[in-house]
Write a structure and sequence with these properties.
Number of strands of chain A: 10
Order of helices and strands of chain A: HHEHEHHHEEHEEEEEEHH
Structural class of chain B: mainly alpha
Radius of gyration of chain A: 26 Å
Helix content of chain A: 40-55%
Shape of chain A: flat
Strand content of chain A: 15-25%
Distance between the termini of chain B: 51 Å
Largest sheet of chain B: 2 strands, antiparallel
Radius of gyration of chain B: 25 Å
Oligomer: heterodimer
Distance between the termini of chain A: 13 Å
Strand order of the largest sheet of chain B: 1-2
């Protein structure tokens, strides 16, 4: 069978695609100063010991403030744990094994301590997805992006989520980091209507969080507003940087699992479904061909 | 006894039924002796596929309704409950969410098929009108359904769209309040949207689909050649180029369905979010009336129209729409074929709009333009003046016009996804003019150029 419209489309395809993509590309807004995200090692999602370690980390460090209230404890049998293991090692309070992973802190206390209830993390690994990377990438970068900052109430700041309300809960593991920040913004002494930029260099001490600022004027007009944060190596943690990265990867793997617990089943099943449908398509094509032999 | 007089060929149980119900005759009229042109191509799978997706949506929807809670305090959680705690709930939910997007993919291709082969032309105007109504109702169905997961995009999308009604002069604010049932989108809104989504709109949809198919079977299908197969019949009154729908097109459609399901399943099992286009990332954050998202975009299938809505600014009304309408009016007046009554109506309409541009704000005209961009499809049977139905026998350059229309539609769709930007706005404004230009000037350009001779019989090569 030949379809004239397809031959036409094929001939015209390069022009059509070029026109569509070209116009689309033109209308894309310049990327809005987001931080480049580190890639989460997705192989962890299939690694049961990693997921179990992530679950333990979550329960020990996160669950005091953040719930995963859509997730049931006994569903963690997906991760190769028995209900007894879950009950003995993962349930911190008097919760039952069929309960959901609710937060221990009350909303009233949270409001008082942090200004707002820390978000539930059930589907965060999905909601934080963007065109810059998956939600897992975001979490992986975020949890590794804390640095000391004495100007914040918590004493901490973050590269991915500037001025976040959450302190660096895992700092004993990672240690604390300082930062050097290059901030380009409108100059303070700029006259109205004048477009003058100034560069502020901020260095933050890794231990005290003390800020030192130097301001320099920008002579050539090529700078763009925004800031670049470079972190200094961590000091004083119980883990090395690579051990810490591994620990965070496990935690993020767990949060990713929690955000869509059926994902592994889904892809495993999907392969079978596609194989069946491929075979079925061949049979359907064959049946069709046999019938259509009649049509002259 | 009246039924004893009825002449039937069947015996036994079937005969008993046929005495009392038109079973065999219906089967024959719509399947085994319904003659369809034998030269259907790829594009003709999509009517059957649309029916398939409709059934899938209804069946998966019924199961979702068993576990979903239309309550603003519980809705978000109940969707995740379906995803986690209901056995196979994730599959049913992903089928339904992917099905919504698949429905629009299928319908857009189905409509494109109608456009290029002139399937809306006499005697098929009513099929086309029922089809356009189905498209409108489908958009309503998708819009109501999108609120139900009660995520941030659900919530703010509904807020934005319902607020559009407030742009209508005089009654607008009251009207949008009446639709919402509250001052902001809230529990009352969710409950009524649920009622519309699961019963009111599906009933209308099913009725219209039935009317669409009955109208189709009354006049028979068009085909890629735009040749009327009923014009050439054999001694038994069967069209020479027609073949029984069953078994030939049933086996053909089974083949199409299996390939469709292959693609559909690939999305469901491996990319149910489809990169944030089928399930928007922000919709995994529960609705929060106090936190407006930085960027609110409708789902991809609405974005061409959303782009047109956003394109209408007071500047654009001045430099874009006003000259555009004046050129249109000039063309109407200069064309010899146009009756004076039509000229008068066109003049009054354009005049009213130009005055309206001064009186009413851009937001109102944006809503009008968005509405018009969807409603304008209804006009197709009366604005296409080409000598032939099918694109195959139209002047070669017509193909480029249709190709440009497709590009404009896709680009408008893309700019609708993007956050507002100055360049994006210009592109969507030019796109809006081209979009409407395609339709408004169709009475003239569709008649221009050298048409090719249409054959008596369809072109078909045996497989």
């Amino acid at each position: 069978m030949t379809y004239p419209i397809f031959r036409f489309a094929a001939r015209l395809a390069p022009a059509l695609i070029a026109a569509t993509l070209g116009l689309c590309a033109l209308s894309v807004q310049a990327a809005g100063g987001g931080v480049a995200l580190d890639q989460f090692p997705t192989e962890k999602l299939k690694d049961l010991p990693s997921l179990q370690n992530g679950a333990k980390t979550f329960v020990n460090y996160c669950l005091n403030c953040h719930g995963a209230s859509l997730m049931r404890y006994n569903r963690l049998t997906d991760l190769g744990l028995t209900e007894a293991q879950i009950r003995d090692n993962l349930i911190p309070t008097d919760a039952k094994v069929g309960d959901t992973m609710k937060v221990s802190m009350s909303a009233k206390d949270a409001k008082e301590w942090f200004g707002a209830m820390p978000p539930d993390l059930s589907v965060t690994a999905r909601s934080r997805s963007s065109h810059d990377g998956s939600g897992s990438d975001w979490l992986y970068t975020y949890l590794r992006g804390f640095y000391r900052d004495s100007s914040r109430a918590t004493g901490w700041n973050n590269t991915v989520y500037p001025n976040v309300g959450m302190p660096h809960v895992l700092w004993e593991l990672q240690g604390s980091r300082g930062a050097s920040i290059e901030e380009v913004k409108a100059a303070a002494d700029a006259k109205p209507g004048q477009h003058a930029l100034a560069k502020t260099l901020i260095t933050i001490d890794a231990l005290t969080g003390q800020r030192t600022e130097t301001v320099e004027a920008i002579k050539d007009g090529h700078a763009h507003e925004g800031s670049i944060v470079t972190l200094t190596p961590a000091v004083g943690g119980t883990l090395t940087q690579s051990q810490y990265d591994g620990q965070i990867a496990d935690l993020v793997a767990f949060l990713t699992y929690v955000s869509d617990p059926s994902a592994q089943t889904r892809t495993r099943l999907g392969t079978g479904v596609l194989l069946f449908l491929s075979l079925f398509s061949v049979l359907a094509w064959w049946l069709n061909r046999e019938y259509w032999k009649d049509i002259k | 006894m009246a039924s004893a007089d009825k002449k039937i060929d069947t015996t036994g149980v079937l005969g008993w039924v046929d005495q009392r119900f038109p079973l065999t005759s219906t089967w024959k009229a719509h399947l085994s002796e319904y003659y369809a042109p034998k030269n259907f191509n790829f594009f003709y799978f999509f009517g059957a596929l649309a029916t398939l997706v409709l059934v899938l949506q209804i069946v998966t929807g019924i199961f979702l309704t068993m576990h979903y809670k239309p309550d603003s305090a519980k809705a978000f959680e109940s969707v995740e409950y379906i995803m986690r705690d209901v056995p196979w709930g994730w599959l049913v939910r992903y089928m339904h969410s992917t099905g919504a997007s698949a429905f629009f993919v299928v319908i857009y291709i189905h409509m494109f098929r109608g456009l290029i082969y002139g399937s809306y032309r006499k005697p098929r105007e009513l099929i086309w009108i029922f089809g356009c109504l189905i498209f409108l109702v489908l958009m309503a169905e998708a819009f109501f359904g999108y609120l139900l997961p009660w995520g941030q995009m659900s919530y703010w999308g509904a807020q934005v769209i319902v607020n559009l009604f407030s742009a209508i002069p005089f009654i607008g604010p009251e009207l949008s309040l009446w639709i919402r049932g509250d001052y902001v989108v809230g529990d009352a809104t969710l409950n009524r949207f649920f009622a519309f989504h699961v019963i009111a709109i599906p009933l209308v949809l099913l009725g219209l689909v039935a009317a669409h198919i009955v109208a189709l079977h009354e006049v028979g299908s068009n085909n890629p050649d735009g040749v009327e197969i009923k014009a050439k019949k054999n001694a038994d009154g069967i069209p020479l180029d027609g073949i029984p729908f069953h078994p030939y097109y049933t086996v053909h459609d089974i083949m199409g369905v299996s390939v469709f399901l292959l693609v559909f399943s690939a999305v469901i099992f491996f990319a149910p979010e489809m990169g944030g286009y089928f399930l928007e990332y922000n919709n995994f954050v529960p609705a929060d009336p106090l936190k407006t998202p930085a960027h609110i975009a409708p789902v991809w299938y609405f974005t061409p129209y959303y782009s047109i809505l956003r394109a209408i600014t007071s500047d654009f009304m001045l430099w874009g729409l006003t000259p555009f309408l004046l050129i249109f009016l000039a063309v109407v007046w200069m064309s010899r074929g146009t009756r004076s009554l039509s000229k008068l109506i066109a003049t009054l309409a354009v005049g009213a709009m130009l005055v309206g541009f001064l009186v009413l704000d851009a937001k109102f005209w944006g809503v009008v333009a968005m509405g018009a961009s969807v409603m304008i499809f209804f006009a197709m049977p009366w604005i296409d003046n080409s000598e032939v139905k099918s694109i195959r026998y139209r002047p070669g350059w017509h193909k480029y016009v249709y190709a440009a229309f497709v590009v404009v539609f896709l680009v408008l769709g893309y700019t609708g996804v993007q956050p507002p930007s100055p360049v994006g706005q210009i592109i969507s404004q030019v796109g809006t003019l081209l979009y409407f230009g395609f339709f408004l000037f169709m009475p003239w350009w569709s008649a221009m150029g050298e048409f090719k001779p249409v054959p008596d019989r369809v072109t078909f090569a045996a497989h």
